[in-house]
Amino acid sequence: AVAAEAVEGTPSAISSAIPARRSESFERIEGLRGRKSGGAWGARVVWRDLSTSRAKFHERALSAAPGVLYAAFMLVPLPFRFHAILLALFLTWPAVAAAGRAPAPSLESRASELVERHAKALRTPGTNLEALLADLRALARDAEKAHRDSVAYVAHMSESSVLGRLARRTEAERAALQAAAAALRERNPRRLARARLAAADLRAATDPEGALEMVESALPELRALGNDALLADAYGNLSHACFELGRFERALPACRANAAHSAALKDNRGLVLAWTSCSQALRFLGRHAEARAVADSALRLARDMGDRGLPLSRSLTEKASLH
User: Fold this and answer.
1) Are the C-beta atoms of residues 287 and 281 closer than 8 Å to each other?
2) pTM of the predicted structure, to 2 decimals
């Protein structure tokens, strides 16, 4: 307790504890005075006063340091006093030095700070993504070394996102799979599914067939979880892979399923993007009247949202493609 308060910067706690610790040292010394003498006696007093329990060594050393040094100087016979003082300093200095150092930030606090930096980087152009990437990788290494799988998952997923922004898709996919491994160790099925979907989405541009297999293999588990957000992402990834392969008949039901789950979530942004993909699939299938109706609905909703970003630009582009 004294050690903990000393770290927090309350020296009064140490000064109030010194008399009690000193009297405890004197009691032990009196019990040994008649039986031990010389350097062996001094060493035994110091050791017994400080090292009864190896696990509590630093705590006891910090609180008992003044009494031990006093005992080593005043009570040890003169020929052995210098050696006793050296031994007392050797035993107590690591604990005193450790108490003076500021505690390192926890893995959770580091993860929280990096997640905030990542979110800010997504909104702010010109952010130094390489520095953020290095910090995320260091956090992931430390979390895995400490077997903190939940923190490792967060670090790897953020790392994958940053690598995706840097157009390093192969590395981004590897980071997503490392996040999936952390989620598997954590036994968190939702996080596992999220990481697998991220990896599949990154693979779609270079290996759409492999991405399609990844998503289809994950769908039974996702349906069992019944999570609309995960299912919306899964069907979005599935439609993306089908578009890359030119399988528009298969892309259409995936786009509609994506729209249905986005509507269940009341996610208007996701709904606009899903409707735009539906219109695109219908257009490629030659069903222009249906495509035009869906594109009109997507554009109307995008304008109602007041969003000037991706949903509006995608819906405007699809509407122009139908003329």
Assistant:
1) no
2) 0.60
